[in-house]
Write a structure and sequence with these properties.
The chain has about 240 residues and is of the alpha+beta class. Helix content is about 15%, strand content about 35%.
């Protein structure tokens, strides 16, 4: 086949996942989504962990799991305990590998507010059996995100309120300064394991107060300095 011959696919390729950027018509193309597990001490205890002894650990979601803030998503199949987790999201803006925390902040291109949606009952079953969390975390429309705001506009996000309400009732309330591992520490640590690239998103963990949702619920979330987040839950598809 000639180098100039266009590639022909058996089935049409999926659309490139991407996220809106505040103040721009250009979008941030997403290739990978990393998530930090139990990065707030109170949530770690809430989930039965010990934050004093845990180094960062990660799980992933497919980029195809992205859904924009303001959407309505159906209650997912296979679960009876569907949970919200409000999180600060980092967007990487440079190819980096084996950074130190002192240099990692420069790799952060933008921030967003996000939801790590979780099938909690499947996660509990996986934990009990010592199995991966994929079915609990990596499912359709499980990575909700607002538009991104450039770090050059926000400055480093080291503190600020993070909160979530369901149908107007407060459920989660914390501060970004409560994170066990800060944004530069997360980026530096993850860069020891992966060659990070533009297109990588990192969900940085959630405060305590996670809980179940039902069809008809409305989620609202806020992080100081970032766009507000909304999500509606509809009946199962």
């Amino acid at each position: 086949m000639s180098a100039n011959t266009p590639t022909v696919y058996i089935f049409p390729p999926a659309e490139q996942p991407s996220v809106a950027v505040r103040g721009s018509t250009a979008r941030y193309a997403v290739s990978r989504i990393f998530c930090v597990g139990r990065n707030y001490a109170a949530h770690a205890r809430e989930m039965g962990g010990n934050p004093e002894r845990e180094a960062p650990f990660y799980f992933t979601k497919p980029a195809s799991a992205l859904v924009p803030s303001g959407a309505t998503v159906p209650y997912p199949p296979g679960t009876k305990n569907y949970h919200y987790e409000m999180e600060l999201v980092i967007a990487i803006g440079a190819p980096v590998f084996k950074l130190t925390p002192d240099s990692a902040g420069a790799a952060v291109w933008a921030y967003g507010a996000g939801l790590d949606m979780t099938r909690r009952d499947l996660q509990a079953e996986s934990k009990a059996a010592g199995r991966p969390w994929d079915t609990a975390k990596s499912f359709e429309q499980s990575a909700v995100i607002t538009e991104l705001v450039r770090a050059s506009e926000t400055g480093p996000l080291t503190r600020g309120s993070i909160s979530l309400a369901v149908n107007g009732v407060p459920k989660q309330k914390g501060d970004l300064s409560d994170m066990i591992w800060s944004v530069p520490e997360i980026v530096a640590n993850l860069s020891q394991l992966y060659h990070l690239q533009p297109g990588d998103l990192i969900y940085t963990g959630t405060p305590e107060g996670v809980g179940p949702l039902q069809p008809g619920d409305m989620i609202t979330g806020e992080i100081d300095g970032l766009p507000p987040l909304t999500l509606w839950i509809s009946e199962p598809a």
